[in-house]
Write a structure and sequence with these properties.
Number of domains: 2
Radius of gyration: 26 Å
Strand content: under 5%
Distance between the termini: 59 Å
Number of helices: 7
Structural class: mainly alpha
Amino acid sequence: MKISSFESGKAGHVSPAQSQKILPKDRPRRKELRSQLAEAQLTPLEQGILQAERALESIPDVREDIVESLAKKIQEGKYQVSGQEIADMMIRRRLADRIR
């Protein structure tokens, strides 16, 4: 079988589009991922990201029940927190952030 010079130049050639990796800033947005066709073409990592985004959509940004409870206690003067408790919580949060 004879290969033309045009075809032989393509042998082993990978196009720039094939060699690029999808970075988080370049990944498809939710609206683009809604169709079944787009989802079928996702890598396992992208499918995991999509699943995580869907799970996060169901979680409220603000837990209104807790906010209302605390606001009521503050207004009634029943919410008392010492400086020591605040400092302890700040240290625990800092340590937890380092572990992650």
